[in-house]
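Posting for a labmate who doesn't have an account.
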Amino acid sequence: MNNIKGIILDVDGVIIGEKIGFNSPNPHTNVINKLRELRNRGIPISLCTAKPHFSIGKVIKDAGLNNYHIADGGSVIINPINNTIVKKHILDKELVKKILKMYIENDVYTEIYTIDNYFIQKSQECDITPKHIHILQANPVMLENIVEESHKYDVTKIMPIALNEEDKERIANLFEKLNTGLTLSWGIHPVANPLKFGIITAPNISKKEGAIEISKNMNIPLENILAVGDSTSDWQFIELCGYGAAMGNASNQLKELVKTKAKGYFYIGENVDENGIIGILDYFDNI
């Protein structure tokens, strides 16, 4: 990795898979060991996820990733080990209330996030709740009326959860009609299919902007960073970086996009459930 000075990794589908007890809810021991080895060699590894930092805290601690990480889809840039926050983007409280009111009235399961907690309305508790507890490794704070109580909190992210692809379209259309100026993106998780996770953040906040912040704050040029993902949306930050890789379980579209990088600057790895990230890191370690 002579020319690679830093690494940015998506989390779900890259280091965390769907085999509970093997690589879910936390990465396999061999993956943790590989990340720790590289970090001990002086290569900072930043996790990049739509999840809050407290959901990846164990991974960061176990692998010794004492550097900045991208959480909440880019809304928060943080080093949880020393609790240093570089950036946090707080949503306007009136907009939060407006969005929540719309979604609750339309029976959309919706969560709100602060730096250190997430919240749901007690009446919405259902079979989605334990699935997300497993993914986030944290219990939600239950509110009696999330719309009226939201003003008490500095919200960094709103997460409407769709039941399937059709429901995702319905939720996206409702959001578009409000014309809030906020950003809505989407994510998935291997153990929660067919659920789709909406990520509502401040304007122009994304994993792409998060990668730019990581590059700036760690003083590592983007051309010297390796980025790895599994979904087409990950191309937004992989494209920025000099080196890119896609998992074997990645979308075909992402694989084709990654291949547009020059030979020796891209790699298609094995499936996350085969610890494919290790092969990717080994490939770039040996070129």
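Reply:
Got it, the structure tokens are right above this. The radius of gyration is 18 Å.
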